[in-house]
Amino acid sequence: MTPSQRQLAKAQAALAIAILTYAPLRVANLSALAFDRTLFVPGRADQESLIEIPAAEMKNREPFSITLPPKITAMLRVYRSQVLKGSAKSSTAFLFDNGRGKPKRPTSVSWLIERTIRRHLGIEMTAHQFRHLAAKTILDGDPGAYETVRQLLGQRNLATTVNFYAGLDTRRAGRHHAALIEKELAAYQALPPSRRRQRLDGRA
What we know:
It is elongated and about 75 Å long. The mean pLDDT is 86. The chain is built from 9 helices and 3 strands; from the N terminus they run H-H-E-E-E-H-H-H-H-H-H-H. The protein is mainly alpha-helical. The protein folds into 2 domains: 5-127; 133-200, no CATH class.
């Protein structure tokens, strides 16, 4: 059974959101993903998929590589075998096929993402904001991990990453420091009195 354009769009929106959650690509790179060229899906659903984008297609002119967890692999395999093959009029390699064997435009993929999030969550969120969310998630868990953020977002210069995301770094670092203090205090409180005295004397 050939899926309708509406069914195809819903499946593509779900995949776009799932991929961006783990691989916060620029929407131009996301919309251009192609099976067996920049997107490599393994033969088993319990394995990781791989995104590899050549330097010439990246904004920073550096090659980009990232893995997707098995749960995304399972989605991709079902989509490719049951949805995509039945919708394209000609053989296609593009993940976001427009129904005619060509990739959808970045603006079309962006619109699908925004509409789906608005309908199901009631919030406004663009495809680009997944990049900010990824940076915040990393820095909240590991303040100062700007190099990790730079690599994940595919940015050329570390200074660009630091300048863009350092705005709340003092408060973030303060919370991280407070959590470390609380952890040390809890560990100290759990010690027997004799061990506490040793800790205070610097003997343990």
